[in-house]
UniProtKB/TrEMBL annotation:
Subcellular location: Cytoplasm
Enzyme class: isomerase
Native source species: Nocardiopsis metallicus
PANTHER family, per the entry: DIAMINOPIMELATE EPIMERASE, DIAMINOPIMELATE EPIMERASE, CHLOROPLASTIC
List of catalytic residues: C85 (proton donor), C85, C216 (proton acceptor)
Feature type site, description Could be important to modulate the pK values of the two catalytic cysteine residues: H159, E207
GO molecular function ontology, one term from the record: diaminopimelate epimerase activity
Gene behind this protein: dapF
Top-rank taxon: Bacteria
Binding site for substrate: N11, N76, G86, N87, N157, N189, E207, R208, G217, T218
A GO biological-process term: lysine biosynthetic process via diaminopimelate
Matching NCBIfam families: DapF
Pathway(s) it belongs to: Amino-acid biosynthesis; L-lysine biosynthesis via DAP pathway; DL-2,6-diaminopimelate from LL-2,6-diaminopimelate: step 1/1
Keyword Amino-acid biosynthesis recorded: yes
Name of the protein described by the UniProt record: Diaminopimelate epimerase
Length: 271
């Protein structure tokens, strides 16, 4: 099995090129590949498949993905399927260019949240149009040592973005957050953030299906949206454990911009 390894602000992924949809990617295969001691290691899997060869029926909300040649089949490190991954799209786009699957600096990537427009910036950063960000009310989560309150945000996948007092480094994210099952029947990513300066947020995240990660693109957007007064636009620099991304919010939705790199390629015998 061919693979590549890439990351966006240290949110890292095992990339599986499968243009014709021939691979059978099981939950067990994903867990093995993402294992940081027994496998390659990663927060998730990005299977690179032509949309026409995907072999599954897309939900109505994702039908726009059919206009993109390439589809990002994203799996969390526990093998579960996620609707969207912001850093994953940026790394996926970088790989498409690296492998020669696309040309130019503007194209679309298909996801389970529809087609996402991508721009390769002059400085090499990758910007993805995340679409509309939906506020869905307020909720809370019990972390290991505290209860946090925040905004329910949909960025194609569910989030609870919580502003906290003091450094985010003091928040214990070692355990699975306890969420309101009514508000989040499928679970959610939980972000804790604080504003450290004008237009600057510091954030950490517990990702559904992966645990705490060094970065989360949709989580970065969710935190920026939660920190912005409803109905207003804003630009935020969001600092995470793995680096920094920029979020642009306006009436049309959100754009996420930051670095994305391919660090390795090879073959694995894990099946």
């Amino acid at each position: 099995m061919r693979f590549a390894k890439g990351h966006g602000t240290e949110n890292d992924f095992v990339i599986l090129p499968d243009p014709d949809g021939e691979l059978q990617v099981t939950e067990e295969t994903v867990r093995l590949l993402c294992d940081r001691r027994a496998g390659i290691g990663g927060d998730g899997i990005l299977r690179v498949v032509r949309t026409s060869a995907l072999g599954e029926t897309l939900a109505p909300a994702a039908r726009t993905a059919e206009r993109a040649e390439w589809f990002m089949d994203y799996r969390n490190s526990d093998g579960s399927i996620a609707e969207m991954c912001g850093n994953g799209v940026r790394v996926f786009a970088r790989y498409l260019l690296h492998a020669g699957y696309v040309r130019g600096d503007r194209f679309e990537v298909g996801t389970r949240d529809g087609a996402k427009g991508v721009v390769i910036e002059p400085n090499g950063d990758v910007t993805v149009d995340m679409g509309r960000v939906e506020r869905q009310g307020a909720s809370s989560a019990k972390l290991a040592r505290q209860v946090v309150h925040g905004a329910q945000i949909s960025v194609g996948n569910p989030h609870l973005a919580c502003e906290v007092e003091g450094p985010v480094a003091d928040v214990d994210l070692t355990q699975l957050p306890e969420l309101d099952a009514e508000a989040f029947p499928q679970g959610a990513n939980v972000e804790v953030y604080t504003e450290t300066g004008p237009g600057v947020l510091e954030m950490r995240v517990y990702e559904r299906g992966s645990g705490e990660t060094r970065s989360c693109g949709t989580g970065i957007v969710a935190a920026a949206a939660a920190a912005t007064p409803e109905g207003e636009g804003a630009t935020w620099r969001v600092r995470v454990l793995g680096g920094e991304c920029t979020v642009y919010l306006d009436a049309s939705g959100a754009r996420l911009s930051g670095p994305a790199v391919i660090v390795a390629e090879g073959e694995t015998v894990l099946v």
